[in-house]
Amino acid sequence: MVYKKRLDNRKADETRLVEAKVGVIKRADGSAYFKFGNTWAYAAVYGPRNLYPRFLQDPSKGILRCNYNMMPFSSRGERVRPGGSRRAKEISMVTEKALLPVLDLNEYPNSVVDVFIELPETEAGSRTAGINAASMALADAGLLMKDLICSVSVGRVDDKLLVDLDYLEESYEDGPVADVPIAFLPKSGRIALLQMDGLVSKEQLAKLIEMGREACKKIYDVQKKALKDKYKVAGDIDG
Amino acid sequence: MDEDLKKHVVMLLGSDKRLDGRKPLEYRKPIKAEYGFTKTAEGSAKVNIGETEVMVGIKMEVGEPYPDKPDAGTIIVGAELLPLSNPDFEGGPPGIQAIELARIVDRGIRESKTIDFEKLCIKEGEKVWLILIDIVTLNDSGNLFDASALAAYAALQNTVFPEFDGEKVDYGEKTNKKLDLKNIPLSVTVCKIGDKFIVDPTTEEEKVIDARLTVATIEDGTLCALQKGGEFPLTQEEILKMIDIGVERGKELRGVLKNG
């Protein structure tokens, strides 16, 4: 069967329902959650704080440490065993690399900025939701940043090019599927994360990157609005 | 222990006051339970006590029974003190704090007999339902014990069995069969600082307590689990007094549960 119409009736360039909120974890220096439909990522930032053991310290700049973790009950299938997997380690690493281009850590020698990403519910697109939440949490923590980072997964299902694949689309079996998580620095348009698994032509990939860029513009607006909303209530009281 | 902080807390308690302005035996507000926050679990609940926020999710699995109880399923409780929830928590395998938390919640549920484990038997000696209860902390502003016990029970109330065809569990298909829960086990942790008792400590107060007693009870006040913590010993009178406080305050916590 040819994949003509998306199973949940979305348009090809339409993300799942996006929702974001800042300041959701009171103990953290910065925090946020970001949702793509049923995929839900929390991020909390602690730091800059002292880094131990001391041999890990860098006297020229601060370091960024990200940890991506699925909660034990966050998968549709069996329980996820705690303790991290190879997949979680890799995602933590690419998340770190995706966020670094907008951070200026030169002001924080010998320190660490810890970013903890936790997922209570996942249904495809969890690393991109985690990156979006983490970028908002870093801004909420008041760190020096050039820009936010916006991320979405684009891909191919059969011959359709789509934005924000959901679980059923990722597991489509009647034709080729490709999944391309991507992240942008929205102002410069540069790409901070790019992964791909599946089969696509170079032309298709170029088209997908453009679709991702457009989708990220909307995500950028949602992120900025959520950051402003955190201070809205306080503003209203003052006024 | 922070001696200055302790002196200050004790001094305030001398006039029945606390750091955040509460009375000694007063819980923070709001206390609330949100049922079914995640659809990937067979049951879930998120509980807030003041700023403390705990999530519990339940996965149902089919496994082998213990050799000494071939006709009974069981519960398995895990707790993760996520480094996202408190700057003092570190990643890695569960430490003793997380283990104690999971064990107290486990005993409260298990010993209350709220779940009839024999009803979880599918085929004697071969297949039984295992109820995997996972506690994760989202924001630790103190009193994870009581918040976790409350969230665990609420998550059990929210749990439905997935489809099982005799061979494997189909997590995509949920039945409308719920767990048959008999009692409502909940815990109240009563802390002693100086010669005063408080409930629902903040993380600051937790740093200066002399002793604590977690009192798990069912609705009629029967005790189902106890755990003493802290470095100072307690007298028998003190323990009985703490139990009275635990039973009394437990009523308030039960009020936030559905049908309870």
Structure, described:
The complex is a heterodimer of chains A (239) and B (260). Chain A has helices at 86-99, 126-140, 167-170, 202-230, 232-238, and strands at 18-22, 30-36, 39-50, 63-70, 111-121, 150-157, 160-163, 177-184, 191-194, 197-198. Chain A has 239 residues and is an alpha+beta fold. Chain A has one domain (18-227): Ribosomal Protein S5, domain 2. A five-stranded mixed β-sheet of chain A has the order 1-2-3-5-4. In chain A, strands 6, 7, 8, 9 and 10 form a five-stranded antiparallel β-sheet that branches. In chain A, α1 packs across α2 (126-140) and α2 (126-140) runs parallel beside α4 (202-230). The longest helix of chain A has 29 residues, at 202-230. In chain B, α2 crosses α3 (144-157). In chain B, 25% of the residues lie in helices and 34% in strands. By secondary structure, chain B is an alpha+beta fold. At the A-B interface, β3 and β5 of A face β3, β6 and β8 of B.
User: If strands are numbered along the chain, what order do they take across the biggest sheet of chain A?
Assistant: 1-2-3-5-4
Largest β-sheet summary of chain A: 5 strands, mixed
**Number of spatially distinct domains of chain A:** 1
What's the CATH H-level superfamily name of chain A? GHMP Kinase, N-terminal domain
Number of strands of chain A: 10
CA-to-CA gap between the ends of chain A? 59 Å
Number of strand elements of chain B: 12
Average pLDDT number of chain A = 94
Residue share in β-strands of chain B: 25-35%
For this structure, what is the CATH class of chain B?
Answer: Alpha Beta
CATH homologous superfamily caption of chain B: GHMP Kinase, N-terminal domain
Describe the secondary-structure layout.
The complex is a heterodimer of chains A (239) and B (260).
Chain A: E1 18-22, E2 30-36, E3 39-50, E4 63-70, H1 86-99, E5 111-121, H2 126-140, E6 150-157, E7 160-163, H3 167-170, E8 177-184, E9 191-194, E10 197-198, H4 202-230, H5 232-238
Parallel strand pairs in A: 4-5
Antiparallel strand pairs in A: 1-2, 2-3, 3-5, 6-7, 6-8, 8-9, 8-10
Chain B: H1 3-14, E1 31-35, E2 43-49, E3 52-63, E4 74-80, H2 96-111, E5 121-123, E6 127-139, H3 144-157, E7 160-164, E8 169-178, E9 186-193, E10 196-199, H4 203-206, E11 211-217, E12 223-229, H5 236-254
Parallel strand pairs in B: 4-6
Antiparallel strand pairs in B: 1-2, 2-3, 3-6, 5-6, 7-8, 9-10, 9-11, 11-12
